[in-house]
Amino acid sequence: MPKFAANLSFMYGEHEFMARFAAAARDGFEAVEFLFPYDHAPQLLAEQLRQHGLKQALFNAPPGNWDHGERGIAALPGREAEFRRGLLQALDYAQALDCPRIHVMAGLVPPGAEPAALMPAYLLNLRWAAEQASNQGRKICIEPINPRDMPGYLLNRQEQAWDIIRAVDHPALELQMDCYHCQIVEGDVSRKLQHAMSLGVLGHVQVAAAPSRHEPDEGELRVEHLLNLLDTLGYAGYVGCEYRPRGDTSAGLAWLRRWRDLSRATG
Predict the structure, then answer these.
(1) What is the mean pLDDT of each run of 10 residues along the chain (267 residues)?
(2) Is residue 136 within 8 Å of residue 130, measured between CB atoms?
(3) Domain boundaries 3-266, corresponding CATH code
(4) Distances (CA, A) of 217 to 12, 96, 155, 265
(5) Is 131 a catalytic residue?
(6) pLDDT at position 175
(7) Active-site choice (33, 143, 174, 215)
(8) Of the listed 33, 174, 215, 242, which one is catalytic?
(9) Is residue 242 among the annotated active site residues?
(10) How far is 161 from 201, CA to CA, in rounded Å?
């Protein structure tokens, strides 16, 4: 049975951030994820996890200047020193939160630049990041993101990510596969999951409805099928619920309660 992580950057917006841990625990989540932890002291976040019996599944490395539109700097030549400082900060948080995985965002392709010209810096930074993470027993993830939600993002397709992971050739570099992004860009989500598992690179999975990005109980993706497939494939990681609730977060979790009830009845 899959393990679920509530994404606290998307879910429980009816609560202030620190109260979202308790809300997720009340709804039966085993773990949480979020975009960035850096506005809060790691000790405060760790205490929320401990107090509510939660695991930290994932968070992002510093993305550059997010408020000014940056979406990662791992592939931006000339930003290597900043990237390394940020990754070391992320590893400090990962140690404090006992978090196994850090998502490293590639960044937006600069105006006039060719994506291929960014690859040498990207591969070098990922190789260095994977080595640093490995030294602390952590993993680095990369995630294809659809260009509708994030125009200009370097990494859009699953095959791109597979090729990059193959080129870096480090066991601490894994794929973060968001089924929502995959469906919007290329579809064929089931086969993409199967292939990623066959390559041994699938580190983290996320779900949301496509195309709405609401609860995964509507639209083009059948969440029950995806969860059953992950079980069949032997996926042992977390399924991150990275979606925007249509209304009250807890009320919108009927899809998850149905899944859990069915799994207990058939298990």
Answers:
(1) 94 98 97 98 98 98 97 98 98 98 98 96 98 98 98 98 98 98 98 98 98 97 95 96 98 93 70
(2) no
(3) 3.20.20.150
(4) 18, 35, 27, 20
(5) no
(6) 98
(7) 143
(8) 242
(9) yes
(10) 10
